[in-house]
Structures
1.
Amino acid sequence: MTEELQAFCEDMDEQLSIMESTLLDIFEISIDEVDAEMINKIFRAMHTMKGNSGMFGFDNMVAFAHVAENLLDEIRNEKVKLTQEMVELFLLVNDHARMLIDLTVQNEVLDDEQLAYHNDLLTQLSAFLGLKEPNIIQTTSDKSEVDEENNTNYTIEIKPKDTFIQSDMDMFAIIKYLGVIGDIENLKIHDEFIPTLSLLEPLKSFLSLSMSYKSEEPLESIKAAFEFVIDDIELSIINTNKKEPIKEEKAVTKAAGKTKKSKTKSSSLRVDSSKVDQLVNLISEMVIANSKITQIANNDNKVELTEVSDNLTLMLEEVRSVVMDIRMVPVGSSLNKLRRIVTDTSKRLNKDIELVISGEETQLDKTVIEKISDPLVHMIRNSVDHGIESQEVRVKNGKSKTGKIYLRAYADAGVIVIEIQDDGAGIPKDIILNKAIENGLVSLEDKLSDKEIYDLIFSAGLSSANEISDVSGRGVGMDVVKRNIEDLKGHVEVDSTLGVGTKITIRLPLTLAIIDGFLVQSGQTKYIVPLEMIQECIKLTSLYRKKMNNNMFINLRGKILPLIDSHDSFETRRNVNQKENIVVVNVMNKRVGLIVNELHGEFQTVIKPLGDVFRQMPWVSGGTILGDGEIALILDIPMLIRKINVSEHYEYTN
Amino acid sequence: MKISYNELTIYEIENLHKKIVKEIAKAKTSFTLNFENVEKIDLSTLQLLLSLKKECESKKIKLKLINTDARQIKKMIKMYNLYEQLGLSS
């Protein structure tokens, strides 16, 4: 099983569990007590499952999830009332989806009995939707269908682009032609995104079309029908009775597939992250206890005890590094997973897109990576789907045919930053604003800044996309993105220029991460300065002291270097005879010198959050336990600089 | 309101949109759109009608589309299964 497929299975498992537990919650209360968030939760899970399955070309699952999602959407929009019967049906849908995924991943198909059950579930779902002809998969052994043996069932979704109507292409003629080479069933115009008359721009297309289609023609011939309009629409044709869903693993025999699966099952184990946290804390405690033993051994000059404790120290360090390894993983593998998504989606949308990844080596806590993975997928899909324009539009606008998406990860000023930047069309502010007004999120009178408008894309139920596809554009996603990031105490912001591109910046706090630190000491207290911020260290000689003339700056090779005295800032006792050093840090293009006593050198720092006691000291971003059990405070240099600036301002104004 | 155009395509749709917006502002309980003169419609017309339907629903105005008997109109509405969506009898 490929890494991507394994990640897919884990993700599906998570979504199914969310759906199941929410349904069970609903089961326990009365139907009238079910709130919108519960329905949204199930809907989002189903939507994510459909999207992910679409990425892997698991069309059976996509088609199945599509029907369930439609019903959930109707319930969400209060067009259909949720009943106990539906809740029970959704539980069955949940179980069946789990089986569908398992079978698909194992490269197997539904047997006749399972197929009958599959179709029965679809019929039940469709009945609630008021549809008479559900998207049923035909059994291969069904004798009555002999004359249709060569027919393939498709689900076709057509989303005209904004400019389709203006292009004056005749959709009617295409559909008529499809009717000639096959049978159209249940053709439907979706009007969800058509605004009311007063907001309608009549030459812009807001509608989308979908149909069930049966034809003997191969997929290519059906696609060819859209040849003349393909640049003006987004087209999705799903083969609903495809028997070989996994493209890369076609050659694998069923038996081999099974062994492979059982192997992978044992290679990955999901553990509650709190258990790892507990382990890390315990080991830290052991390091502290061990340092005490070392001290006693040294004090009492007991050679044997010293030997044992040295041994213990080495082993503890090893255990600690192994446990840290469990938690800290380079973001690379997670970012590379997105390559596949970009390749597949861009191929499907007929776009030429290059994904440029940098900073793969940046280390992040595994729980953070897991939680950030879904938001990244959503945002990358959005960039591919709506950000990057079609090749023709790009060429017309004087851009290179190949769109670029940059994905960068780096540690900066006490946070891990992940940036997704595309050189696409940018976010149309007016559309976002109009939709938000339409949905009642803001009122016409509100005067919003650009930033506030872009922030609206994170509101629940607001999609900047005008279509519903199995890739994106249901108005879910961005709210989930924001929620996941906020759960990690992170922050996300959007910046966009129409015609130039969009940049989404995610900042995640370092509290869960690992950094290369530089250990310094001031008085008796040890501090960690993030190594990346350090430019150089110099000795604060008596000559410098003299020239300072009680001012807090020095002339460093012809440039003024403002200084921060750690003793003053942290109110530690000053020892006159101690030597003094300056650590020159550079953050956000500001250069500042920090006066400390000792320079101990580089230190791999695992950040541990500090309690509320430290809330009054925002320039301390966390703490770390040193090898000898001592605690060092991690300095938040940008906050420290800000503090100095504020007090300077205070002095000026007073 | 009686539509004066024989054909409704992207060349007429903007003007028609303006006229309907003006007329519907005056409507109280119902709004009638008469297709007597119209022989041909396109996708932009269907979108406009669906949008009009939404507008009427939001304002609780009853929308009546009448004389939609031209062959091409009937064909379009039938093919896109819009009878129910537009409140027409098949």
2.
Amino acid sequence: MVARVFELLFKYRPLVFSRGDLVAASPIPLGAIIALGLVALALAGLAYRRANATLPPRVRVALFGLRAGVVAVLVFCLSGPALRLSTVVPQQNVLGILIDDSRSMGVADQDGQTRGATAAAAFAPDGALMRALSQRFRVRLFGFSSSVTRTDSVTGLTFEGRRTDLAEALSAARRELSTQPLAGLVVVSDGADNAGAALTEPLLALAADRIPVHTVGIGTERFEPDIELRRVALPPSVLQGSVVVAELSVQAPGFGGRTVPLVVEEEGKILSRTEVRLPAGREPAAVRAHFQVSEPGPRRVRFSIPAQEGELLAENNSVEALLTVEPRVERILYFEGEPRFEVKFLRRAVADDDRLEVVTLLRTAEDKFLRLGVTDSTELAAGFPRTRAELYRYRGLILGSIEASFFTHDQLQMLADFVGVRGGGLLVLGGRKALANGGWAQTPLGDVLPVVVDPAAADTTFFVEVAVRPAPLALDHPVLQLRSTAEASAARWDSLPALSLLSPVREVKPGANVLLTGNGPGGPYVVLATQRYGRGRAMTLAAQDSWMWQMDADIPLEDDTHEVFWRHLLRYLVSDVPRPLTARLSADRVEPGQAVTVTADVADSGYVQVNGAQVQATIVDPAGAEHEVPLRWTVRRDGEYEASWTPALSGLHELRVHAEQDGQVLGETVVHFHAGDLGAEYFGAALQEGTLRRIAEETGGRYYTPSTLRTLPEDVAFTESGATVVEYRDLWDMPVLLLALIGLLSGEWALRKRRGLA
Amino acid sequence: MLRTSVHSRMRPAVLVPMLSALLTGNGTGGGQEPAPQEQQPAQVIPPGRAFYFTRAVYTSYGRWRPSWAVDYPKADVQFLYALRRLTGLDAYELENPVALDDPELRRFPFLYAVEVGRMALTEAEVDGLRGYLLAGGFLVVDDFWGTREWENFESEMRRVLPERAIVELPQDHPLLNTFYGIDSIVQVPNVGNGMRGGPTWERDGYVPHLRAIFDDGGRLMVLISWNSDLGDAWEWAENPHYPLPYSNYAISLGVNLVLYGMSR
């Protein structure tokens, strides 16, 4: 509406003014016209000065001003104002039209019509728009998704592309038409780019060549009602039989507040089903799902929410992730400073877990140790490890009731390095000689622990029984999953018998997470806390008698709470512990043709990063063919090596990474990724108007919607690119000037009449 | 609501049933009436210790005093003295008798029972002991002799763990090397025979045995010292007339039993 009024008053649309330069096209020199105007102004001023001395000065100024306005309008008209425009030579230029051919164009959010159908109707070969464009340009039509293909007609598009790569589309079209006079590009899309490629570079290149890109946004930004599972966060690998907590980002405009099931499946087998409450509004919210995968190897896990009635798009209700289930055995060293029942029951709790091996060193008397679970007679024969190599063999370390003074200073530093440098998992238990009572406050390990060990809290007479309960928001933590559902776990936690503390822990370090709290006299207390420290993880379980969850008379004999708790706790303790060679991928699921980057961190047995290693990846594709890819040191970080590789086939790919130095093997590891249909087009499929506007603005183009496409043929004609001519468009006859003259003269006349001068 | 903790639990007074037995004539040669396992509030035990030497209080028959209380409490206290001195164990210094049908029994995963030849468990005691053992408790049985007493004990244990067999403890079992290396099983006589230099056996219990009941994981649930009296050796260990080899052996085996029971 505003544009229409503007065009009515100023003769042309705003775009014409924005594209043109204002010039004076009169044959009379501009200086002469201005001089004439000044003379006329002077005469007018003189006339009003003589006319009537009784007129108040402000009236005379007003009259003069009105007359000056008239003179100014006339001077402007006499100067022959015109817009100098660069316009295309008809049929001499090429116009590239790129139409999004991806699946998201199949979304029917255009009053029941698909986006693709809307685009096809707008750019139909016999339609008014294409006819108008064809009169001015030689039109070249492209379909684009992950790649760009020429097409003769929009009817040839299938809207089946599995990915949208706007950057590649713009670059490819520019390359394709680089030998021809290119007037501009028109991109018809919903803007839902999912290739992740930066647009900056192609846009800068187009802007440098003065090739305007006009964008046509098709689709709706308010994409509802719809449920979309956007992102799933999973650990890359888990120990076989561990509880996995997946965090998903869900968006559900139009379904906010509804409770729906979140189903986790693996090859058709349902692993878990959790009731989740959908978030209100358009903001995504995190939901969690717990499940266990028993089969080892790479597993494709699918998360889904059943399609709801009236939902706009059902394909974005599910998302997949690749999870590697490791069948390895994790060795954990449990060092206990005094005989106590925690040793017996902790060992029993995990005895049936064939993925955990708790090697126990129990100090039974001064300088006398009992070794349990050792592999041979030499293991721990000299007591607690004295060298890093000996300690770093274990992936987890449990310190029981042992005083800090038992260790040498070097051993204390070694304990801290076990977490910070080696990346091991450390669990410190409460006990008579633990924490503050054990003198741990001023030691290197005191920094590592997630809790504040207050030396002033040392009190050998302290004893308190506490009801142990999950901390706020911690119930979803994998360690606390006592039962298969969150509700059952919560109920079990609420009914567990009390445990006792021999040292009060009330404060955690910044960044630490409290998982369990203890409510009792003088409380609340921190019972279980965890934090990342360096490359590893440190935890504190302040209770000294978790075995009461096994032995208490209120615990039924068939109850497995104690076993489940310890298995989860120890599995979590060692869940992210690195090996000397670790490898990670930029994505665990890609489309064929999409590059995947493998990054390896290489260290020696002492976990010191190695830069001069030979690192090689052997990629086994789904057909069984092996591809050798060398990894190169990135220079960015010590011990970091990287390589990229592009899969051609769909299916599971195995990457075996091998590192060696001077003929000595540093390590070997295996990672997996899956190449296939990601269904990425159905995620984030709402119209991305901002992206399309940015493309237009940064290249000098305009953003259109299907309803504003009418002016596209003329707008595209104003370009500095391709074969153009200079065109002048007169402005002296703009209606607004005539209206201004009439208004000024009428005003002057009315004022004069009122003052008796007329 | 927190359950009653260990420090508020009361110990039974042993003299009360003894006196009661004397007054009622329910003595050694009496009939088959179960002796009452009377308890009354006595003293508070401190909380938070790593170990309480816990004696099983159970119903028995046919003596002027209850069988469970034989050598009590001196044997317990003397053994605790040795245990504390020899190991780094934070053990409560005094005796801790607990009835088999007391829910608090589960708070003490090590249990010592004597003179089980006259054991006559009530149903509540059977249930209590069964639950205790299946939950992970460890029972050490001592000081009963001969075939008749064995048969009584065996029949009682069949009530407690009918699905479990009693087997001979292998000579190479880790229990025998948990703290001290024990090469052979010694018959420890009662204090009278020991100090007099008399026979080491009683009745027809000529050969000492260490027998066991194992759980599904091959871990000891019950260790039975039959035809031997470890308790007397602990009780009289300080007596210069008591033969040192017996008390050495009994304390060594006792230490091993406690440390095994706390670690396996």
